[in-house]
Design goal:
The protein is of the alpha/beta class and 390 residues long. The chain has a domain of 231 residues: Type I PLP-dependent aspartate aminotransferase-like (Major domain) (Aspartate Aminotransferase, domain 2), CATH 3.40.640. A hairpin with a 2-residue loop joins strand 1 and strand 2. Helix 3 runs parallel beside helix 10 and helix 12 crosses helix 13. The chain is globular. The mean pLDDT is 97. Bound molecules: pyridoxal-5'-phosphate.
Amino acid sequence: MLKLMSFYAPRNLKIVRGEGQYVWDDAGRRYLDCHTGHGVAFLGHRNPIVVEEIRNQLEKIMVLSPVFDSDLKDEVIRLLEKILPRHLTHFYLLNSGSEAVELSLKLARRITGRRRFISFINGFHGRTMGALAMTWNPSYRRDYDPFPWEVEFLPYNDAGAVERAVDEKAAGVIVEPVQGEGGLSAATPEFLKAIRDRCDAAGALMIIDEVQSGFGRTGVLWAYQRSGVEPDILVAGKSIGGGFPVSITVVRKEVGEKIEAGAHGSTHGGNPLALAALKGGIRALLEDRVVEKAAEAGELMGRMLEKVASDNPESVRGVRGLGLMRGLELRWNPAPCIQELQSRGVLALRAGLTVLRLLPPYMITGRDIEELGEKLDDSLKTLAAKKPGG
Ligand SMILES: Cc1ncc(COP(=O)(O)O)c(C=O)c1O
């Protein structure tokens, strides 16, 4: 029988349906979804506005190259203007986060004529070759070099290292405002300011990767906006299409105006269903006060996690992340805890080697958070009791 390559550890769980913050398995059991397909379903499963937009579009046309005009494209542009930083004036739509990162790197290379990049320890930017070059995890990189460009990995949140390493040979610096896969560390404003200053001094481009942290997940629209700096390029993906594969690379005027036809392209990028999904995603974000609700729920999550951490000091080192991009740093591999949670009706995932990551949809309720806290506490206590000396 044909086999799917198993790049991820299997969960041995068959999910058949999703609605809002929940999914159901084939036995009818409900789970609170804090996995959300690696953070994609931030707007909830089958968000009604996204479903409505995709359904309407299915009745009209499914394939249309971006070389043709459409009312839908104009509507999406008007909606994007409401959520994108004003200083960024040109965009391109792609299908995955990696592709959008790839374009950001190609643009920085082309605009500066340089081929050296700076990235950060524990950073994750995707798996295609250009994006993988910026991804730190040595096990993801093994056997794939040489990469298309040089990269130096600096310690995250180390402004001094940025000042030393970003010189006139650098094409760009790529950074996540909150590291997703790498362990949920949040950038300090001073660190992002140091990157901005060094990029200005060296003529390099500052690329902010908000594929995981963006679109309200951390309780502000774009997580970098907490710092007050303005990047040259912003990359987003995951939740912007409400569950449909859509990503975006957005650039400053000076970059957008210098790029000529042929510099990049994509067959499916910005196809009508993706545009409809993006339209639905942005409408949902604006019409249901998603960012504010994520900030409120994020506060509750933070308080709940602090309590779980203080009640389980033998298992938990501390609380990580911001808003609804949260986690617990454990003293051990989080895999058994993820299993325990799954058996109690919660789907979670890991980040880095020791962080249990929770990426729930914005509509998670106070009651869901309370129950999640009880299940976390119960799972950690069960595992601590099984440990030698526990
Ligand atoms: C910050 C960041 N950048 C890029 C990517 C790559 O996105 P994709 O898996 O859609 O290619 C991810 C995926 O997890 C991510 O978290």
